[in-house]
Design a protein that fits this description.
With 243 residues, the protein is mostly beta strands. The protein has 1 helix and 18 strands.
Length: 243
């Protein structure tokens, strides 16, 4: 069945279900002048553009739909990026045409597994991904005004709770990683890095009161050189081991 036939059937069904008095017009456009229509513009009874459907690669299948809400620019664009007949990317815009969010099926499995959020200047501010394809986002990345990564949060055991945090400095270099080892939603281990990969120090909150009470220090080769302990958790060091 051709795209034109599919469109005709859909249009007939729309007319049968539409309330009395509702009228719209569909305009076919051959944008590349090859003798085959590749755009279908739907206009309501007041002349407002409702949506545009596209066959961008000329394979006879719709692969993009732009939705309008009495606006000059689309508020939603739906795309089939791999031309398999299934929409796999959805782009959301404000009424002035500013990009706000993109949702994607990056694996082309029918499951949306990535969201991208945009702020002022349409700059990327946050990325969310569903790593295990269970429908729940479990990795969250945050960017600064220059779209540089500043923080990443992970749900590593897929229980819908963050248990790992990564922090980044200049040039997106890793500076610290924090963990929630007991599943209470609070950080209780902190690893500090130099030059992105060199571990310098690890702090532990062994009694889970929110304060570190064990410190481990490392040399540039990764060897443990010193351990400090606050054994009675009063905020004062009471044992130091050196190697």
């Amino acid at each position: 069945m051709t795209i034109r036939q599919l469109w005709t059937i859909g249009w007939i069904l729309f007319l049968l279900q539409a309330p009395l008095g509702v009228w719209a017009e569909v305009v076919e456009v051959d944008s590349d002048f090859d003798g085959q229509p590749d755009q279908w513009h739907e206009v309501d009874e007041e002349g407002n553009l409702v949506q545009i459907e596209y066959d961008t690669n000329g394979d006879g299948k719709l692969d993009q739909v732009d939705i309008y809400e009495n606006t000059k620019k689309p508020v939603l664009a739906k795309l089939d990026r791999n031309f398999d007949g299934v929409l796999d990317q959805f782009q959301f815009y404000s009424k002035d045409g500013t990009l706000e969010r993109i949702e994607k099926d990056t694996q082309f499995t029918g499951q949306l597994n990535r969201r991208e959020y945009f702020g002022p200047g349409q700059k990327l501010t946050r990325i969310e991904t569903d790593e295990n394809q269970d429908g729940t986002m479990d990795v969250f990345q945050f960017m600064d005004e220059n779209e540089k990564l500043t923080r990443a949060e992970y749900d590593t055991n897929f229980d819908a709770q963050i248990d790992r945090w990564e922090y980044f400095g200049e040039e997106e270099r890793l500076t610290m990683v924090a963990f929630d080892s007991n599943g209470d939603g609070k950080q209780d281990q902190w690893q500090y890095f130099k030059n992105n990969t060199i571990l310098e120090k690890v702090e532990f909150d062994t009694n889970f009161d929110g304060e570190p009470d064990r410190w481990q220090y490392y040399d540039p080769k990764g060897n443990l050189t010193r351990v400090e302990l606050d054994r009675n958790h009063d905020g004062v060091l009471d044992l130091v081991k050196r190697k």
